[in-house]
Amino acid sequence: MFQWKKEYETGIAIIDEQHQELFKIANEAYNLLKNNLIIDKYDKVLIIFDKLLDYCKYHFSAEEKYLLDIGYKKFLSHKVQHEEFIKDLKNANLKKIDTNQDEYIMEILEFFVRWISGHILATDMDYVKYERTLK
Ligand SMILES: [Fe+2]
After folding, report:
1. Which residues touch 16 (CB under 8 Å, ≥6 apart)?
2. Residue 35 alpha carbon to ligand 1 centre in Å
3. Distance from the CA of 102 to the center of ligand 1, in angstroms?
4. Phi and psi at residue 46, in whole multiples of 5°?
5. To bridge 29 with a disulfide, which of 48, 62, 63, 131 should be the other Cys (CB 3.0-4.6 Å)?
6. d(CA 73, CA 17)
7. Following DSSP, what letter does each residue of 38-60 receive, concatenated?
8. What is the 98 CA–ligand 1 centroid distance (Å)?
9. How far, in Å, CA of 3 to CA of 105, rounded?
């Protein structure tokens, strides 16, 4: 299970809710993947993965709108990071048939959570610092 940590909190309610939702959806996929009692779990995992990708896009555009609203100077480089991440996720072919499908999907999920956590701690926290100077 992917653990949400206090250090990921930005203090901006809407952003924190959306970041937590990303963890929640990633954990849905994780739990399903770990459940060997469900027969057609891959179809379900793919549906959740689509939901994760959609929610991630939704979150990024909400965050970008917020960054424009507060006049964040590094808006463009932040947006590029979001775009490249979405591109990487789209390139992950989850339908790839091989004997280690569990392992493959788990790797993508781990990549997702690792990227999001790192992005929150470095890139997002930078606009949090900026946002605090406005108060
Ligand atoms: Fe971001």
Report:
1. 8, 9, 10
2. 31
3. 28
4. -65, -40
5. 48
6. 24
7. -TTHHHHHHHHHHHHHHHHHHHH
8. 33
9. 18
107 CA to centre of ligand 1 in angstroms: 22
Residues with CB under 5 A from ligand 1 (ion): 63, 124
C-alpha of residue 116 to centroid of ligand 1, in Å? 8
- DSSP 8-state secondary structure symbol assigned to residue 2: P
CA distance 98 to 14: 40
Q: Are 25 and 48 in contact (CB under 8 A)?
A: yes
Reported confidence tier of residue 36, pLDDT bands at 50, 70, 90 = confident
Domain 11-133 carries which CATH code?
Answer: 1.20.120.50
Cα 52 to chain center, whole Å?
7
**Type of residue numbered 81:** Q
pLDDT tens digits, one per residue of 51-109: 999 999 999 999 999 999 999 999 999 999 999 999 999 988 777 766 778 888 899 99
Give residue limits of the domains in the chain: 11-133
